[in-house]
Amino acid sequence: MTYVTQEEATAISPRIGNTTSGNTSAKTKSTHASQAEGDIITVTGLSRKFDVSKPWLNRVIEREEKKYLKAVTDVSFTIRRKETLALVGESGSGKSTVAKMVVGLLPPSSGEVIVDGQNIWGGGDLGPLRRRIQMIFQDPYASLNPRWRVDSIISDPIRAFGLAKDNAEIEQRVGDLLRLVGLDPLDGRKYPHEFSGGQRQRICIARALSSKPEFLVCDEPTSALDVSVQAQILNLMRDLQDQFGLTYLFISHNLAVVRHMATRIGVMYLGRIVEIAPSAELFKAPRHPYTRMLLDAVPDLAMSGRPRKMIEGEIPNPISPPTGCAFHPRCPLAFDRCKAEVPRPTNPNSDRSVACHAVEQGKI
Amino acid sequence: MAPPVLSVRNLRVEFPTRHGTLVAVDDISFDIAAGEVLGVVGESGAGKSMTGTAVIGLLEPPGRIARGEVILQGQRIDNLKQDEMRKVRGKRIGMIFQDPLTSLNPLYTVGQQLVETIRTHLPVGADEARIRAIQLLTEAGIQGAEQRIDSYPHEFSGGMRQRVVIALALAAEPELIIADEPTTALDVSIQAQIIQLIKKLCRERGTAVMLITHDMGVIAETADRVAVMYAGRIAEIGPVRDVVQRPQHPYTKGLMGSIPTLEATGDRLLQIKGSMPRLTAIPQGCAFNPRCTNVFDRCRKDRPEPFTSHGSQVACWLATQTIAKTNEEAGR
Asked: Which of these CATH numbers, 3.40.50.720, 3.40.50.300, 3.60.10.10, 3.40.630.10, describes B6-92+172-278?
C-alpha cells in the first residue's frame, strides 16, 4: 500500500520530491537565507518565560517584583530532512516547552521557528504549514477524545484540511491508516476506551499521519507504556520514518530510548541546550559534565560493572536559577568563571556543540 | 541456612465480581532472606503490586487471599485479625510507595509524622523519638536534618520527599521493606541516588526488601534475586545475573530484548507480539502461550510448574524439556 505517492509528495513539497529532476530547486526558492538546503526546521534563539508572580494586590502589599519562570532560554538547532533530533533532559529542563513552540501550540517570548523557509510565529497564513507538522503526545489516555469513535478521530485532520473528495475516500484512507499502524480497519467503529495503552498510541500515530505530514513532534511517546509495548511503538515509528521519509523531533527523558531512535541528540538542562552531538558520538565521548552525569545515572542493565560516579544534588528551582552556568552547583569541574558567565555554545552552527567553560578551556 | 524473613507459599489472590472470579495472583511462591533484595518485575497488570499488597494485608475488598500462606519470620500473618495486622504493618513491615507526595500527610511536618511512627511502635519518649527522627533523616541523606525536620512535605523536592518516606519506612526497624515502584516518579539522576540509598540502608540493617518495579534497569542495579511476573504468575525466578544475562523463559527473553540499551544499537528492538491478557481472559495452559514464538501443544493444555534449571526456577514447558533432554544425555 502506498501512503504518499511520489506525485503527491512532489505536489505537497517540491523539495522532497524527485530532486534529480533538476528544476525542483528552481521552483521553490528559500525565503530565508539562514536555512540551508536539506534543513526542514531551523530554530534560532528560542526563549519562553512564564509569568508566575502573585496577583497584583499581593505584589503591591508585599512589595514584591514580578516573577518569571524561564522555561526555555536561547535554544537554537536545526533538523534535517528524514533525520531524528532528540531532546533529552530531566523534568523541568524545558524540552516539552520547546516541542510546543516548534509545533505551534505555544507562542515563544522571543526567537523564531522556521519551517521550510516560513517563520511559524511570524504571522501570515499557516494553514498549509500546519498540515505538514503533527504531534504525538505522551499520554494516549488523555490525547484521544473518549466520546469520539476512532474513525472520526483519525479522519478529523483529513476533513479539516480537505484532503479527501468524499466520504468513501475518507473511509478508505482511515482503513489504510489503521492497517498501517497495525490495527484492523474494523477497529475504527470502536471507542478509545476499548483499546489498551499501546493500541491507543497507535491510534494517535494514525491520526498524526492522516494529514500526510513530513514533520512529527513526539513528546515522550512511549513513557506511559510498558517496555514490550514500547518496543512495538518504537519499531513502528522507525518503520514509518523509513517508509514515508518522516522527520522527527523526539522528546524523551530516557537516554536508552533516545539512543535507539535519534540521529542527533540535544541535551537540555534548565532551559538551555548544553550539548548537541550526533547520537553515536554523544554516547561514545560525551563532553559536557552534565551529559556525562546523565549517562552515568542510567542503570547498568548489561551488568558490565562499568564505573559510575554518584551524582550529587538536584535540579535547582527554575524561578531562581543559579548565576552563570546553571549547572555549576552540581558540577565537579566548576571554577570562578562558571559562576559569573553563561557559557556560549562552542560552534553553534555545527553538528557538535558544547556550552561549557571547562570544555572551552580544555579542562576536559 | 537461616530461615527466610518472608516466605510466600502458593499465594492466590481473587476478586469476586458479578462476571465471575478474577484471579490477580495465581499460585506463587517465593522467599526473601535477611538482607536480601528480591526484585519483582513485570508489566502493568502482571500482579506485582497485588502481591505486595497481599503480603502487607492491604487488599481492597472484594479482593481476598483465596489460598496460600504468607509467613513472616516463621509466623503466619495472612490470617491475622485487623488489629493484630496493624501491629505488624509499620513495625515489622515497612512500605515505600511510588508517589512520595501522597504517602506523606500534607498537614503535618515531617518531624511530627516520624515521631508519631516511632512512638507508635517503639517504647520511647517524645524527646528521644525526635533525636531518632533527626538521625534517620540524616541517614536518609537529608542535609541539615535538625532544621528540615520541622518542614512540611511540600517544602521538599520529589527526591527529598522520597528520602523522608524511606526514613519513615525504616523508623520502627522493620524486618521487611516492601518498596512499590520507589523510583518511578523520579528523574534518572535522582533515581540512582534513591536506589543506592535503599540498598545501603537495608544492607546495613539486614532488612529484607521486596522491590516491585517495571524497570529492569533498577532491578539489575539493586536486586540479588529477581522474580519475573506475567499474568499473575511467576514466569522465572532466580539470581539477578542469570535472569538478566541468560534468561530462560521466552517471556523474559522477549522482555530483555525489547529494552533499548546504551550499549546495543541494533536496528530493531525485539518485540513480543500482542499484549498481556486481561484478567477476564487468561488463556488455558501457559498464560504466555498465545504470544510465545516457541509454543507447542502442551503449552496450550497444561500449566507449567516452576522447574529448577541452572539455579533459576522457570515455569516453561520448553525449558523443562530442554533440561530433561540434557540430563538424559549427560546420564548416558
From this structure: 3.40.50.300
